[in-house]
Amino acid sequence: MRLVRAELARLSARRFTRIGLLGLLVVIGLITVGIAASAHKPTEADRVKAHADAQRYRAEAQIQYENCRQGMDAAGPSASPAATAGPGSKPLPPNSDCSDIIAHQPTDEDLLPHTFTLVRDAPELYRALGALLALFGFAVGASFIGAEWSSGGVMTLLVWRPRRAALWLGKLASLLLGVLGVGVVLSTLWYAAMWVIATQRGITAGLTPGALTSLALTDARSVGIGLAAAVVGYSIAFLGRNTATALGAAIGWVVIFEIGGRIVAAITQAVRPERWYLSSYLLAWLEKEARFEDFARCRDVVDASCSPVEWSITLRQATPVLGVGMLLVALISLVIFRRRDVT
Amino acid sequence: MSVVTCALVTAVVEIEGLRKTYRSLRHGPHQALDGFDMTVAPGQVHGFLGPNGSGKTTTLRTLLGLIRPNDGRMTLLGRPVPDALTEVAPRIGALVESPQFFANFSGRRTLRLLATTAGLPRTRVEEVLEIVGLDERAGDRVKGYSLGMRQRLAVASALLKSPDLLILDEPANGLDPAGIREMRDMMRNLVAGGVTVVLSSHILSEVQQICDSVTIIARGRRVAAGPVEEVLASQDKGEFRVKVDDPAKAASVLTEAGATVRPADGHLVVSDISDPAWVTKTLAGHELWVSELTPITPDLESVFLQLTDGGTL
Description:
The structure holds two protein chains of two kinds. Chain A is mainly alpha-helical. Chain A has a two-stranded antiparallel ribbon. Helix content of chain A is 71%, strand content 3%. Chain B has two domains: 3-234, P-loop containing nucleotide triphosphate hydrolases (Rossmann fold), CATH 3.40.50; 240-296, Alpha-Beta Plaits. Chain B is built from eleven helices and 15 strands. Chain B has helices at residues 56-63, 85-88, 107-118, 122-131, 147-159, 177-192, 204-210, 228-234, 247-256, 276-284, 300-307, and strands at residues 2-3, 13-22, 30-40, 45-49, 71-76, 79-81, 92-95, 165-169, 196-200, 213-218, 221-227, 239-243, 260-264, 267-271, 292-296. A seven-stranded mixed β-sheet of chain B has the order 1-11-10-4-9-8-7, with helices on both faces.
């Protein structure tokens, strides 16, 4: 505990941490100002028009639905809704049902002129915060231990406390506490800013307990990605004994697996290549589900109406992939540190 | 190899048959320590000498658990290491090579963080700052420190734990003559207070002045060890510097009498004799009068160079 306290003090006093935190605040501040500047409170005229538009849309949808049902009844049990949407109606996508026409009716708020809507826009902003926290956590985590290796701090600490696992874990714990603190404070501040913008210049409608819970979970996953990035940055820098190793590994990963992988996948016409990219799982973690389209079956089809197969990576699939990956990197780093010579 | 044994109580540091081989894909294996032995008695300043690359730092790092040995036995303060290292670590202060500190932290803050890690009171920080003479600049950032001040800070960090054993690797690096003298006085005070100091240094005159005993290492092996005077005496060849008016004739006389003689800078160096009076007597028998007769006592530098093949690897 003493080690964690001392390391937390060291982490917070480091210039790199402070500059990184300042950078985070500046970026978040700029985004907040941008949102506030572009948002405006809907006028009464906007609301009346949105209500009328929504009613008209719903009425049209209802007519289309009735036509679809009639067409289905007339064509018999083997009929396809895609072909029987009714006269003057748009054809329905394959494998769809008449009820799909009225399944997702727009609300009045959906048809208001675009403005900041807390329930709709906050999750996206929390995901952006997650990306920023990941960047911050990775860089600060890597620098925190990379600088210690360069300065001989690791050797000094080992001479003081010759318990390698305790040292590794203690420094990591202090880093995670630091990133968690930053994440919680920024999340709170940002929610407060979003609330103010929404109440003054946007829309707060729909903020039910369920929506708030969902928002909290989105934020928790965003902070979680920041913590995971910190663990990975710290572990790689511990392995390489300098900050540059972690940054190089991150850049190498992006260039080789994310960019290079996509090029290779395109050349080889790989099936569902997204499942091989870490970014797909990160997206699924942040958004609960990452949806992709598989065009494999349309490659040799001349028919332009061929529709791709939709598939997705769910949160339940992404969690073990990201978790095991993170733990593996951390475990390798710890095991090697316990065995290696500190020269 | 010259090893002068001395009566020991419980050795503070004991190393037997220490071996370490570094393996590198690029350069192949390199044997840094080849059955090295060392013993340090309590309450002494023990000099640890060797040329660059001879294995000094590897020995100290292995002793402190930073490097895994391939073979050998080590004890610190009577306990086997690395197994009992966590047990004895609180009683050991170490400065291994020159540690760098975070440039943006002050000296005081640097020490306070270390003190927090070890659960030491802040008053101890102020005490060690005063011991190393850094108390007036303790609030300054480390980046404003001179090399000597950084070295003092490093020594202060090693002293924080009030250690029973202090291991200092080149502590005089960057210190000016006054600083070296202060360091010497500090070590003497520590030893007077019961601390044992292991001092690795290249400044041989300094080691000779301050150390009670030494271990000399070359190519990963001990080549000499024991009290300083005894190590020096073990390399004493019984040589005398002789000055006479006619060196050529004197050389001839002494050689005929059975001594080994070589000219040196206007003098004669006479060796292989046990009694200096014999020189006077022999030369006087040939009407040659000695104006100077001085025993040539080896200093640590000459012994070091002799034992380490000129201080090379």
